[in-house]
Amino acid sequence: MPKVSELFFKTAIVFLILGIAAGLQMAISGDHSAFPAHAHINLLGWVTSAIFGGYYALNPQKAARRIAMIHYWLYTAGVVIMLPALYVMLQGNPAIEPVVAGGSLIVAAAVLIFAFVVFSPETARSVSGVPSPSR
Fold it and tell me: DSSP character for 132?
């Protein structure tokens, strides 16, 4: 499995654990004011990271490109900045909203990089039909 796939899958599991913990905290406290943050942890952290990992696992030529690792680090940094700040903001701290916005912009940039990866052509194939080595 490509390294970027493994990193996305491992990161997804961490976010799954955090999403479950946030859900349990809300259930135990009876305060569900942070449910949008819980949903974002699960969707952006767990589901989307796992989908990215799956895409790269199915496209090892694209996973071998440097831009794939840039995508991983930028996306993960954006989610790590955005989600805790969103959780804190929803707990009644609106002053942290600029941090949420900054993290969101980083996530958006990473998604655009992923779109570039998806829409970019694969590396050239040799005459035999076997993929040529990645750069």
Answer: P
Enumerate the domain spans of the chain.
Answer: 3-119
Give me the mean pLDDT over the 66-95 stretch: 96
Nearest to 85 by CA among 30, 115, 41: 41
Which pair of structure tokens corresponds to residue 58? 């199915």
CA neighbor of 90 nearest in space, from 40, 27, 18? 40
Cβ burial of 6 (10 Å; 0-12, 13-18, 19+) is: middle
9: which residues sit within 8 A by CB, 6+ positions away?
A: 49, 50, 53
pLDDT, position 122? 82
